[in-house]
Design goal:
This is GntR family transcriptional regulator. This protein has 226 residues and is mainly α. The protein has a three-stranded antiparallel beta sheet. Strands 4-5 form a two-stranded parallel ribbon. It is 70% helix and 6% strand. Strand 2 and strand 3 form a beta hairpin. The chain folds into two domains: 64 residues, Arc Repressor Mutant, subunit A (Orthogonal Bundle); 147 residues, Up-down Bundle (Four Helix Bundle (Hemerythrin (Met), subunit A)), CATH 1.20.120. Helix 4 packs across helix 8 and helix 8 packs across helix 11.
Length: 226
C-alpha cells in the first residue's frame, strides 16, 4: 500500500485510518480476501496498533472486513444481497426525485447538469475511474438537491458501500459510454419537461447494474458472497 500522509494530530487517528482503509476498499485497491495486518498498517501510517485495531473493528461492523478465527482480519467479499438491496432502494427513491425535479427544472439546473456531463466525458476520455465515479455521484446529488432533498442522497450514500465497490470494478471493465448516454437521456427528458420519460431514463440507468453484476460475478467469483 502507498505511504499515507494524511494523519492530522488534532483529529481522531482511528477515524483517519478507518476513512483511508474504507476508501481503498471501495476503490478496490484492497481486494476482497486480502489480509489486513495491524502491525503492517500501523507501521505504514506511523501510529500505534490501537487506532488501527479500532479501524478494523469498524470495518468489520460495516461489512467491509471479516475476522477469521486463528487467521486474522481480511477484506470482506462483496455482498450481492447488499448490492441488490441498495440498487432497489436507489431506484425507488431516485425515480421519485427525478419526477420532482422535472416539475421545477430551471435553465440554471440544466446548465449545471450539462457541465457535469461534459466533465464526465472528459474523465472518461482520460480513463480516470475515480474522477468518473465522483462526477457520477455529483450528478445524482445535484438532482436530489434540485428536488429539495439533498439529505436523502446522504442517506443513500450511507447504504451503498457494497454497491460502490462494484461500481469501481465495472468502471474499470466496461465502456463508460452507455452510462454517459443514460445520463444524457435523463437531462434531455428534463430539458423537454417530460416527467415520464425522465423517470423511465432514471430507472433504466439504475437497472444497468443488474446486467453488469452477473458478468462480473462470473469472472471474479472469489470477490463475491451472497
Amino acid at each position: 500500500m502507498d505511504q499515507p500522509s494524511f494523519i492530522v494530530p488534532s483529529s481522531s487517528t482511528a477515524q483517519q485510518v478507518y476513512d483511508w482503509l474504507h476508501d481503498r476498499i471501495l476503490r478496490g485497491d484492497l481486494a476482497p480476501g486480502a489480509r489486513l495486518s495491524e502491525t503492517e498498517i500501523a507501521g505504514q501510517v506511523g501510529v500505534s496498533r490501537q487506532p488501527v485495531r479500532e479501524a478494523f473493528i469498524r470495518l468489520t461492523a460495516a461489512g467491509l472486513a471479516e475476522v477469521r478465527p486463528q487467521r486474522g482480519t481480511f477484506i470482506g467479499r462483496i455482498s450481492v444481497g447488499a448490492v441488490l438491496s441498495a440498487r432497489l432502494i436507489r431506484e425507488a427513491v431516485e425515480s421519485d426525485l427525478i419526477r420532482m425535479v422535472s416539475a421545477t427544472t430551471s435553465p440554471a439546473l440544466l446548465a449545471q447538469l450539462d457541465q457535469q456531463l461534459e466533465a464526465q466525458r472528459e474523465a472518461s476520455a482520460r480513463q480516470h475511474v475515480e474522477d468518473f465515479i465522483a462526477l457520477d455521484d455529483q450528478f445524482h446529488r445535484s438532482l436530489a438537491k434540485a428536488a429539495g432533498h439533498a439529505d436523502v442522497w446522504d442517506v443513500l450514500e450511507g447504504l451503498k458501500s457494497q454497491m460502490n465497490r462494484l461500481r469501481y470494478i465495472t468502471a474499470r471493465v466496461f465502456d463508460h459510454q452507455k452510462l454517459l448516454d443514460q445520463h444524457t437521456a435523463i437531462v434531455e427528458a428534463l430539458r423537454d419537461g417530460h416527467a415520464d420519460r425522465a423517470e423511465q431514463a432514471m430507472r433504466l440507468h439504475l437497472r444497468e447494474l443488474l446486467t453488469d453484476l452477473p458478468e462480473i460475478a462470473r469472472n471474479k467469483p472469489e470477490f463475491f458472497t451472497k
